[in-house]
Amino acid sequence: xxxxxxxxxxxVPKYLHIENMNKFNFNHPKxxxxxxxxxxxxxxxxxxxNGIHHTAKATDPEDLFFLDGTNVINVMEVFESxxxxxxxx
Length: 89
Description:
Layout: E1 8-11, H1 14-19, E2 32-39, E3 44-48, E4 57-59, E5 64-66, H2 72-88
Antiparallel strand pairs: 1-2, 1-5, 2-3, 3-4
């Protein structure tokens, strides 16, 4: 799975990671569903769908998950690793 513009994601606040030992309830009231609008080296910009604002928010990749529960940061780490291995060949 790769992260692309337009992907649906779920924001899970860091304190929920710790409290639940990485077993997430994506229906928790502090979780937010959104759509990826852009990406830079530090943040993923997400347009959250449960708010009244339509401006994308900069979000830490560690706090984002795909709808299947896969952590976005794991996908990005694998991609970067593969990309750097390809450049070294």
